[in-house]
Design brief:
Helices cover 79% and strands 0% of the residues. It is built from 5 helices and no strands.
C-alpha cells in the first residue's frame, strides 16, 4: 500500500527543509569561521579550542543533514553561506588592523556565535514544525551557547 503525502504535509516538509538548511549554513559558517580563527592565532590554547568547536560544528551539520533527508530533502552545503564568507573576511580584516590580534578574533567569533544562537532561537520557536528534531536543535543550541561562554571567558582574561 502506498501513501501519498497531502499537500499540507509537503508544504511543511519544504519549510522544515528550508529551516534546517539555514541551520546547516550557520553551523558550516561556524566551522569555517573557527578554522579561520585557528589559523589566525598564534596562541596554542586558542588554536585547540577553535579546532574543537570547528569539529563540533561539522558534527552538527551532519546531524542536521540527516534530519533534512528524513523530510525528503538534501543539503550539499559544506562551506557555509554568503554571510559566513563575509564574516570570515571580517575576521581577517579585524585581525590585520588590530594591535591585539587574539582579542579581535575572539570578538569576531563571539559575533558569529551570537548570530547562530539567534537562528536557533527562531527555529525553536516553531516547535510544532520541528517536533521530530526539537531535542537535536536544543542540544545543538546548548553546545553553541557553551562555546560562546567559553570564548567570552577568554575575552575577560
Amino acid at each position: 500500500m502506498y501513501f501519498i503525502k497531502k499537500p499540507k504535509a509537503m508544504e511543511n516538509d519544504k519549510e522544515i527543509i528550508s529551516d534546517l538548511n539555514g541551520l546547516v549554513n550557520i553551523v558550516n559558517d561556524g566551522k569555517e569561521g573557527y578554522e579561520s580563527a585557528a589559523e589566525a592565532t598564534d596562541n596554542p590554547e586558542l588554536k585547540a579550542l577553535f579546532a574543537k568547536f570547528s569539529a563540533q560544528r561539522a558534527v552538527y551539520a551532519q546531524e542536521l543533514k540527516s534530519h533534512i533527508a528524513t523530510h525528503g530533502g538534501d543539503s550539499t552545503n559544506d562551506d557555509g553561506g554568503l554571510l559566513g564568507v563575509l564574516h570570515r573576511t571580517w575576521i581577517d580584516i579585524k585581525q590585520s588592523l588590530s594591535s591585539n590580534e587574539d582579542s579581535a578574533i575572539l570578538e569576531a567569533v563571539t559575533t558569529g556565535e551570537k548570530a547562530a544562537l539567534e537562528k536557533y532561537d527562531i527555529a525553536l520557536k516553531n516547535y510544532v514544525e520541528h517536533a521530530d528534531h526539537i531535542d537535536l536543535l536544543q542540544k545543538q543550541r546548548t553546545g553553541i551557547a557553551e562555546a560562546l561562554a567559553s570564548i567570552e571567558s577568554y575575552q575577560t582574561v
